[in-house]
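User: Hey, quick favor. My workstation is busy. Could you predict this chain's structure for me?
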Amino acid sequence: MSPAARRLLLAGAARRRCLSTDAEASASASSQLPRGKRWDAVVIGGGHNGLVAAAYLARTGRSVAVLERRGILGGAAVSESDLVPGFRFSRCSYLLSLLRPAILRDLELERHGLKLLPRSPSSFTPCLDGRYLLLGPDADLNHSEISKFSKKDALAYPRYEEQLEKFCKLMDFVIDSAPPEIRQEFHASMVDRMKDRVDKSAFWGSLLRHAIQQGQKNMVEFFDLLVSPASKILNYWFESEVLKATLATDAVIGAMAGVNTPGSGYVLLHHVMGETGGQRGVWAYVQGGMGSVSSAISKAALEAGVQIVTNAEVSQVMVNETTGKVEGVALADGTEVHSPIVLSNATPYKTFVDLVPANVLPEDFLCAIKTADYSSATTKINVAVDRLPQFHCCKDINPEGGPEHMGTIHIGSESMEEIDLAYREAAGGVSSKRPVIEMTIPSVLDKTISPPGQHVINLFVQYTPYKLSEGSWQDSNVRKSFAERCFSLIDEYAPGFRSSVVGYDMLTPPDLEREFGLTGGNIFHGAMGLDSLFLMRPAKGWSDYRTPVKGLYLCGSGAHPGGGVMGAPGRNAVSVVLEDLKAK
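Assistant: No problem, here it is.
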């Protein structure tokens, strides 16, 4: 049978098995699973990383089941239509760039319906004094725009981006590799232990070669970026407050951290780390919303033979107390799903504190998981509006959308001092009086998510502490007051915005935890500080996706290389699983 014919045959079978990724599944979990079947692998959670892991495993001919708690797939990469009639929201994540190119190719996601909508310009910062800053992939535009604030900065900006892109070439290797964890496995043979050490040595050798290619000066600059506050890096390169503040938002997004927090400089790499269509640093909207990413991956998984079950909440990982090996999972409805391999796409805290029996885990490991930083200061407000916001700093009225509407609109980010003040307020338990808002309007490019002439607006807002020093996020008045504070701030830049709001959906840190299983509301499954990356993620000694429970692996954002819609944790985890299976 030809590869094309096989794909058609598998696609037909997939359609027959497929549960809609956008509709609630009415059948119980037990009725969707073959009775008594023993699976080669089970994946906890149908987020994008879990689906990636399932697809890659199934492509090796193994039987794989994905168990998703909600009635809809995607985890935080999800589109939902029932919140404001006629509008389709990307409820959590809202832009794509970090998804690994190898995953796009291997799983043929474009064939499965993924369509990216690149943005140009990609950034717009309005100022209350009537000026504005546009940035994007067009070098001439960048030079012209930055020159309005500083001719010196306009000359420095291309060099800044060039340096970050050099660092990203080094990061690509690290992101796409399992960390070289070395543990003393006493049950392993001497041959296996020697082979393991050779494999780890190969990693460090490859990393050294990449570092040598960077050159000594660049490596010193790279380590400076890793450990420094974003403010130090940006103050070194630039003098314009508006440019520095615009770039600084990349360093603090999604984190309970400020521009002066050591290590925040590393996240500046996200400015250029990803790509769209082979072009570095270009972020894209996804047609149909971010749920289309998960939908495409799920179609690839189904085509490979994966069984996907929604409304299937895992209540416990089953572990044989005698052997210490995983035996499968138990669902909330009492169903037992048996498998010698379980991959968890849940957060480390959810996995090891809530699902794995405490008596089978080493005390120091469990302590490290419990005391890790899961703090969040992020609130997502999805807004339906009856017209586009018109910014007073732009002379032309663009009812259909102008360059200022295409990319990320930075509100309340005219200086790093503003960002730092907002952070310090939240650190004291108070939601920021003038929040830092990243506004995007995907419906300018994607006409499938809103009625004609109306629009979907994403507001990614910082800073909002998980626990308020006064009041509670459960109080509807507190929630309404904060939403109106955000709308009023936008009104200062785009008069009339508040009156254009048709409806909205608001997710505070406790909402993100409750609805999406994000411990502490942290969108990255845990902080992305230097003490929580690479060999330290999720805990010292356990960075290679393996866990103290034999047969249980982490495959979500709580594992290396961390958060963002990139799929790397899922893909890397499978490489480790296959390595262990081969060893057996």
